[in-house]
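Pasting as-is:
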Amino acid sequence: MQTRQLTDGEFKATMTPKMQNVTETATDVLDIWRYVASVPAADLEGHSVYDRFVEAVYRSDDDRFDHVLVMTMTKNVLLTVVIDLAQDSIFGHRLLDLNREYGLS
């Protein structure tokens, strides 16, 4: 399966000022796991995906994109799979390292 690592600009363009946590109401309309398994190791920067565990799902306030936060084995590091709701397809992915971006540990 072909994957697409999003640039910082592409990733931020899928966000809106008020991303809504829809973890409790989101449905599994799109199976992300084959895509996640296909993400190149280089894109994970040495991190490993935790056993099919979704930490949270956030939706843009224009209902265009979902950000599915897949847990890794490293605290505060998530593989974000971006779903294009209008196309009902995976738009791409971005590794979200909160430790690096916000100085968390």
